[in-house]
Each structure stands twice: as structure tokens, then as C-alpha cells.
């Protein structure tokens, strides 16, 4: 499908959301830029992993930084951004989900579409670069850095960049990720403020993340199902295959983390 055909349906005004002037941008130029500069994403991921390795070595014999105020502002900023993404991204997806055969419309059909959804989908993709800064706080404060953390950040950036390159239809469900992050970063901000939060809240957040991933598996499986039926689906093999694998790996990691952190067996072991 030609690029112009992929995005010609974008409109400023629709029955589910009205795009503000600042949300109207040159989508075709931006998609082309992403496609021509994928090396930038790979470079960022490489530098991210390089920085983690040498950052941990550099901090090994140094005292931990406190960074309380920067951490509070950082998390509240990302929480606010995630809330806005959720509010701007959810109307179009809910409108399509409410149709007969709603899942097919969300993951495979381009119409209808709106500049507001497109703009905040782009912002969410770019925010995955900013969110790499989460790891800097962990390293500089000498907290435990688990594999789930850095793999999740690197792989999510990869998925979002590729997803925007192809301007994938299913990307309109990005609000699910933003919704989860709204709670997650708010929780981190409150913890940075030394506010005592029950462990049940942390457990609920992990559960919410697992539900998000189950939803991702459902969306990926739906695409495969529709294709097996011989129905057209405006998705690309690279994102369907690699995205499905990464989401599956995320799910295994998060379930394992949940079991290790909250299972009764683990609690007995800690006692």
C-alpha cells in the first residue's frame, strides 16, 4: 500500500474527537523520516545498554546519589504526560471497539482516524526515548537493576519506533500503555515523596501490567486469526511477528516477577 493511501483518511474533526491545531502535523513526512532514520533508534538502544554496563561499573565504588526532587518531578511529569495520552488516545479506539466486529476495526482497518490520535501516538513513541532515563535514576541511586527493567525499556522503544514507521493500525490502542503508565508513574512519584503506600498497591500495579500484556497477546492473536480467515489487515509481518514475540517474553517476565514478589511461598521464604 502506498504511503499516501495509508494516511489520507486522517481528518481534523470527527464524531469522537476534535484535533487541536498543534496536533495537526505532516504525518507523511514524519513517517518517512522514521523509516529513513531507523539507525537512530538502534544507536539509542546501543548507547542505552552501553551506558548501563559502564554506569554500574562507575557507581560500584561511589556513594549513591539521593536525587529525591529530580525523581519526584520526573515521575510526576511522565504521569501527567501519560494521562494526557490516555485521554486523547482513548476516544478513537473506543469508537472503533464499539462497532460490530470492533476488534477487527481497531487492529486491521484504518478508518476512521484522526490527527489527535496520530499526534499522541507519535508523542508516545518518542516518550520511550525519554523513559530510558528511568534507568539512570536506578543506576545513580544504586538500586537493584533487574533484567526485566532494561529489556522492557529497550524492546518497547524498538516496538514503538517500528510501529510508527509502518503506521500500524493496531497502534491506535496505544492508550492502554499510557493508561497503565498513568498509575505507574504516579505511584513512583508518591514513593519518591516518602509517602507510605501499601504493598497491595504495588501488587495491583503489577497485575495491571500483566493484564495489559494479556490484552497485547489478544490483539496479536486476533491479527493472526483475521489473516488466517483470509481477511485483509493493514499490518506488517515485522511488527506482527517480532511484536508478538516481545509481548510474549514481557508476559513471561512479568508473571515471573509477580510470583517472585508476591507469592505466599516467597513470603514464607523471606520470613
From TrEMBL:
Membrane topology: Multi-pass membrane protein
Signal sequence region: none
Keywords: Fatty acid biosynthesis, Fatty acid metabolism, Lipid biosynthesis, Lipid metabolism, Membrane, Transferase, Transmembrane, Transmembrane helix
Domain of life where this protein originates: Eukaryota
Catalysed reactions, semicolon-separated: a very-long-chain acyl-CoA + malonyl-CoA + H(+) = a very-long-chain 3-oxoacyl-CoA + CO2 + CoA
Primary site of residence: membrane
Sample GO molecular function, one term: fatty acid elongase activity
GO biological process: fatty acid elongation, monounsaturated fatty acid; fatty acid elongation, polyunsaturated fatty acid; fatty acid elongation, saturated fatty acid; sphingolipid biosynthetic process; very long-chain fatty acid biosynthetic process
Compartments where found: Membrane
TM stretches of this protein: 39-59, 71-90, 170-190, 210-228, 240-259
Enzyme Commission designation: 2.3.1.199
One Pfam family of this chain: ELO
Cellular component terms per the entry's GO annotation: endoplasmic reticulum membrane
Family from the record: Belongs to the ELO family.
Annotated protein name in UniProt: Elongation of very long chain fatty acids protein
Amino acid at each position: 500500500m502506498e504511503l499516501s493511501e495509508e494516511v489520507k483518511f486522517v481528518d481534523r474533526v470527527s464524531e469522537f474527537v476534535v484535533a487541536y491545531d498543534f496536533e495537526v502535523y505532516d504525518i507523511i513526512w514524519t513517517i518517512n523520516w522514521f523509516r529513513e532514520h531507523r539507525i537512530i533508534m538502534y544507536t539509542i538502544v546501543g548507547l542505552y545498554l552501553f551506558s548501563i554496563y559502564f554506569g554500574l561499573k562507575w557507581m560500584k565504588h561511589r556513594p549513591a546519589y539521593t536525587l529525591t526532587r529530580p525523581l519526584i518531578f520526573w515521575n510526576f511529569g511522565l504521569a501527567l504526560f501519560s494521562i494526557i495520552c490516555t485521554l486523547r488516545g482513548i476516544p478513537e479506539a473506543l469508537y472503533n471497539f464499539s462497532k460490530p466486529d470492533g476488534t477487527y476495526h481497531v487492529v486491521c482497518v484504518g478508518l476512521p482516524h484522526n490527527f489527535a490520535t496520530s499526534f499522541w501516538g507519535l508523542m508516545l513513541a518518542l516518550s520511550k526515548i525519554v523513559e530510558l532515563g528511568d534507568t539512570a535514576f536506578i543506576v545513580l541511586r544504586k538500586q537493584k537493576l533487574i533484567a526485566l527493567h532494561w529489556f522492557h525499556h529497550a524492546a518497547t522503544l524498538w516496538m514503538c519506533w517500528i510501529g510508527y514507521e509502518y503506521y500500524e493500525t493496531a497502534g491506535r490502542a496505544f492508550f492502554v500503555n499510557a493508561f497503565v503508565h498513568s498509575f505507574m508513574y504516579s505511584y513512583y512519584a508518591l514513593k519518591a515523596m516518602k509517602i507510605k503506600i501499601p504493598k497491595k498497591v504495588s501488587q495491583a500495579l503489577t497485575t495491571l501490567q500483566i493484564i495489559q500484556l494479556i490484552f497485547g497477546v489478544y490483539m496479536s492473536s486476533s491479527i493472526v486469526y483475521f489473516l488466517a480467515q483470509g481477511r485483509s489487515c493493514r499490518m506488517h509481518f515485522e511488527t506482527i511477528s517480532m511484536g508478538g514475540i516481545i509481548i510474549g517474553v514481557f508476559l513471561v517476565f512479568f508473571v515471573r516477577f509477580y510470583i517472585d514478589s508476591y507469592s505466599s511461598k516467597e513470603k514464607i521464604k523471606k520470613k
